[in-house]
Amino acid sequence: AEETGKYIDAGMNSLFATWHCDDEKKKQKAIFCRSRAYALLMKAKELGQNTSGHKGEKEAIMIDILRRIGKFKEAQSLCLETIKNKTNKLIRDIINIQLMLIFKIVTLLKESPVKNNQRFI
Q1: What is the DSSP string of 92-108?
Q2: Are 61 and 41 within 8 A, CB to CB?
Q3: Which pLDDT belongs to residue 119?
Q4: CA 22 to centroid of chain Cα atoms
Q5: Which of 55, 60, 61, 111 has CA atoms 20 to 30 A from the CA of 81?
Q6: Which residues contact 56 (CB under 8 A, 6 or more apart)?
Q7: What is the pTM of this model?
Q8: Which residues contact 31 (CB under 8 A, 6 or more apart)?
Q9: What is d(CA 109, CA 29) in angstroms, rounded to the nearest whole number?
Q10: Which sign, positive or negative, has the C-alpha torsion 33, 117, 105, 120?
């Protein structure tokens, strides 16, 4: 899909690969696939490619990806930006849960002697 310029499809395919890696307990490959999915979805956003979902749906997926690869500040910023864009209640609820998870993980990281943030993702 990437070769044909369909970056949303390519990003979602990378996300599907991530879930396979998760199932197979291949953590580093899952992180790589999530990072790739995020980059492809960002490219789609920059090019104005859109999905046929609800407003904020793509951003909710990107927030989840960012959180799971440990990019908490970026995830939090995207949460706040997306909430401002008047998404529907379901998307707002999902984003609020993401914000809560980010806060809890960041708090745990500050309190934990373990420096590897992947422990909490």
Answers
A1: HHHHHHHHHHHHHHHHH
A2: yes
A3: 47
A4: 15
A5: 111
A6: 82, 85, 87, 88, 91, 92, 95
A7: 0.80
A8: 68, 69, 118
A9: 23
A10: positive
Q: What are phi and psi of 55, to 5 degrees?
A: -60, 125
| Residue 113 backbone dihedrals phi, psi, to 5 degrees | -75, -15
- Reported as a single tens digit per residue, the pLDDT across 73-120 is 999 999 988 888 877 889 889 999 999 999 988 887 776 555 555 544
| Residue-by-residue DSSP string for the chain | -GGGT-HHHHHHHHHHHHHHHHHTT-HHHHHHHHHHHHHHHHHHHHTT---SS-TTHHHHHHHHHHHHTT-HHHHHHHHHHHHHT---HHHHHHHHHHHHHHHHHHHHHHH-S---GGGG-
- 57-68 and 7-23 are packed helices; what angle lies between their axes, rounded to 10 degrees? 40
Report the chain's mean pLDDT, rounded to a whole number: 85
